[in-house]
Amino acid sequence: xxxxxxxxxxxxxxxxxxxxxxxxxxxxxxxxxxxxxxxxxxxxxxxxxxxxxxxxxxxxxxxxxxxxxxxxxxxxxxxxxxxxxxxxxxxxxxxxxxxxxxxxxxxxxxxxxxxxxxxxxxxxxxxxxxxxxxxxxxxxxxxxxxxxxxxxxxxxxxxxxxxxxxxxxxxxxxxxxxxxxxxxxxxxxxxxxxxxxxxxxxxxxxxxxxxxxxxxxxxxxx
Length: 222
Description:
The protein is α+β, with helices and mostly antiparallel strands. Helices cover about 25% and strands about 20% of the residues.
């Protein structure tokens, strides 16, 4: 009887014993093959590049679809009552800025905003009296949304700006030469982003030498 490492009862005939041994060997080979195939799949999955998302989505008319999950993105900073003009605004509100986590990570590793970066500015009313609060202000209802997109394939000026009301789902890009584009072009510390107002990114930009120090000194921006 051939030696295979498989022990069988001695009462079996040589022919039956050999058949059983062959079956066990075949089954063991199948198991080993399955394990190796599973391991290879895991290796390929680990080596495959991670799909970066979310990214800008447009409808059939070319309008930017509102990114509803933006509150799950990387939070950059919040402002209260900020106004780039010396004249007072209609009322003070909070502005919260978010960017996709993958774009944030790219910037942290290179000092550059990758294509299809999106900044979302979440605008909310402010309230001072409510519940147990006695001083200061807290955020309440969403009043509007602004989105800044870096998408050279769609925008000749690379960066485009979109505005939504509180319930808006889609928006057209603001016309060429709009006030948002001009303000960011003239005063943003890194590309079209106001990194001077983002405390976690300011040191990163300085480390990579992409921070425009002069933009901190701007006065009477219009």
